[in-house]
Amino acid sequence: MKENKVGTYSFVAEPFHVDFTGRLFMGVLGNHLLNCAGFHATERGFGMAELNESNYTWVLSRLAIELEDMPAQYEEFSVDTWVENVYRLFTDRNFAIYGKDGKVYGYARSVWAMINMDTRKPADLLSLHGGDIVDYIETEKACPIEKPGRIKVSSCMPVRSMDVYYSDIDINGHVNSIKYIEHVLDLFSKDWYAGHVIRRFEMAYVAESYSGDTLSFFREENEDGTYDIEVRKNVGGENPEGEVVCRSKLKFDNK
Amino acid sequence: MKENKVGTYSFVAEPFHVDFTGRLFMGVLGNHLLNCAGFHATERGFGMAELNESNYTWVLSRLAIELEDMPAQYEEFSVDTWVENVYRLFTDRNFAIYGKDGKVYGYARSVWAMINMDTRKPADLLSLHGGDIVDYIETEKACPIEKPGRIKVSSCMPVRSMDVYYSDIDINGHVNSIKYIEHVLDLFSKDWYAGHVIRRFEMAYVAESYSGDTLSFFREENEDGTYDIEVRKNVGGENPEGEVVCRSKLKFDNK
């Protein structure tokens, strides 16, 4: 396994996983990427199941996906994933998304922390399994997209509010990382997507939200045409500003 | 292929596809079943891609799923599917869902029509490909659950209304069949699911809904403890009753 630092996993774009333009939903791609991260970590002894036994779990902190194109319905595609770097409290995991004939759809970057499930405190990655994790760092493979950046939203008028429902909630009782992607992308209309494609999508996961929470979405357009979105929970009442749950940045191109 | 009338397909319950109890979401199972229907039909020359070329498409009319249990996170399971009957305008397709060691999770029944995509009129299944489809009827395999029944909802007070968003819409421009399942199940709270499991789920698909539509959900509890739900689009205004999109019946058991 240490020889083979890059994991490769194959997928097909299923009918209910493509949007009205016939291209894979970004949330579905995100789900595949996170699954690949899980497969790759598990195969190397750092998977959720192993960690949960010792009371630790991986937490996704940042995700950035940049695409030239997106798989079409029924198309086969594959995802390469590898660990680019390991720091004391974070690790950088990258992805490359390929079509059947080696066509490059795009790349993704993610940043993960590990926490103790009781204390919710971060674990020292470099001391885990005697520092084993650094043996899996892949230094050769390029991920030619920018790292996730800072996202700042100053708008105080939500463009949408929604309650958290049953289908949003994962096994940890949190709104799952993929559902935030779907809800953020739903802030743009079908007409908008008829004329635009997502070139780059970024998400910064800040805090968890739960059943019973109300999520408010704040959106602003930047001078360069990108959009920044902030999701806050339970805005109003005792805590008028609510609490930031996640932030997203979207770069669209005209079709 | 005519020898092998039952198709078998394997899956694993992915982390983002299980609910807070750690069991597969019903909508995800529904997605897998419909994919199996697609695989099975395609392998026998009756798939969407082949049909679309000749301007026809399959339309799901009814789905009923009855389960003793649901796969847990990371569990492998498989789906058998076969054609039970073919009539002039409808075909009955069944499913069996098994665990790794032959454990039976449950069964499902579905009813499909085929329509001409231009005229939206139903096609005569018995004359398609020279009546070839009847050669695939499997008469031996049992599907020991009741057929989908009639669902009648008289409530005129919606329990929820929601706009159709980008992530609801499939390649045909319709709200996809799986999203209705998710939205219907979201009418029940996380607390409800903490104490109840879905024993049987039924859906009757009546009409399509589109981007820009507003969906209203009407729910009533029957004397036997089952719930009937009707989804109508664009209730109010010129057409106070709106138009029925689908109806669902849910039977829960206490945990």
From TrEMBL, chains A, B:
A Pfam family hit: Acyl-ACP_TE
Record's keyword annotation contains Cell membrane: no
Domain (Acyl-ACP thioesterase N-terminal hotdog) ranges: 17-125
Keywords, alphabetical: Fatty acid biosynthesis, Fatty acid metabolism, Hydrolase, Lipid biosynthesis, Lipid metabolism, Transit peptide
MF terms (GO), sorted A to Z: acyl carrier activity; fatty acyl-[ACP] hydrolase activity
InterPro entries: Acyl-ACP_TE_C, Acyl-ACP_thioesterase_NHD, FATA/B, HotDog_dom_sf
Residues covered by the Acyl-ACP thioesterase-like C-terminal domain: 161-235
Superkingdom, taxonomy of origin: Bacteria
Similarity comment: Belongs to the acyl-ACP thioesterase family.
Protein name: Acyl-ACP thioesterase
